[in-house]
Amino acid sequence: DTAVSQTPKYLVTQMGNDKSIKCEQNLGHDTMYWYKQDSKKFLKIMFSYNNKELIINETVPNRFSPKSPDKAHLNLHINSLELGDSAVYFCASSLAGQETQYFGPGTRLLVL
Amino acid sequence: AQSVTQLGSHVSVSEGALVLLRCNYSSSVPPYLFWYVQYPNQGLQLLLKYTSAATLVKGINGFEAEFKKSETSFHLTKPSAHMSDAAEYFCAVSATGTYKYIFGTGTRLKVLA
Predict the structure, then answer these.
(1) Alpha carbons B102 and B105: distance in angstroms, whole number
(2) What is the mean pLDDT of residues B14-25?
(3) Which of helix, strand or coil describes residue A57?
(4) Which residues have a Cβ under 8 Å from the Cβ of B17 and sit 6 or more positions away?
(5) Minimum distance, in Å, between the CA of residue B113 and any CA atom of chain A
(6) Do B85 and B111 touch, CB atoms closer than 8 A?
(7) Which of A106, B12, B27, B97 has the most beta carbons within 10 angstroms of its beta carbon?
(8) Could you tell me which chain A residue has the CA closest to the CA of B43?
């Protein structure tokens, strides 16, 4: 009965590779988010989708491309990975008009 | 524009002592305020939230927070710390329709036996 799930949980890869992280929520929410948590634990929003439409894009390099095939899924594809992309990426979801966001367990990305 | 400041990146308390984690916010519109807890290698779990109803908000695990508009604060308290409270705590602010949280930099709580 997981609410917000992410795969994979851990991702170790080489610089220059392309990788994807998947997020799914079964809460019936219509808004989903990607956050990045850096090594100092600072959390910053990257993207938000509402009903499959992009509504927030916070000055993220265009190597990062989110895709929302339906309201329950928001995937993150990263091209040409760089060392600075190493972080924990959190997916979250909420219901439009409701402010509470529910977070997934995170994907720990390490770029070597 | 909105922002959040968490004073004290590390706080240590003895088991059984009062926990006080500080959060001050800045918002040009009435804010929604949240406290989340993050246990090691886990995601964020909502502790409590303020959404313009009662100014004293009770959350899970015995935590509560009071919204003070005059002080632009939303400090988190717990009367008696437990070892299991050791974690990272994040304060966040949002506003209606903005679809995003602005997080503070987090406070790591250490509970001493």
Answers:
(1) 10
(2) 97
(3) strand
(4) B80, B81
(5) 25
(6) yes
(7) A106
(8) A105
pLDDT in tens, A74-83: 999 999 999 9
β-bridge partners, A111: A13
Residue among A99, A100, A101, A107 with most chain B CBs within 10 A, to mutate: A99
Inter-chain residue contact A99 with B88, CB threshold 8 Å = no
User: Quick check: B100 and A56 CB within 8 A?
Assistant: yes
| Chain B: closest CA distance from residue A26 (Å) | 17
> Could you tell me the CA-to-CA distances from A58 to B8, B44, B84 in Å, in that order?
27, 21, 35
Confidence of residue B29 (pLDDT cuts 50, 70, 90): confident
Asked if B15 and B83 count as a contact pair (C-beta separation under 8 A), the reply is yes
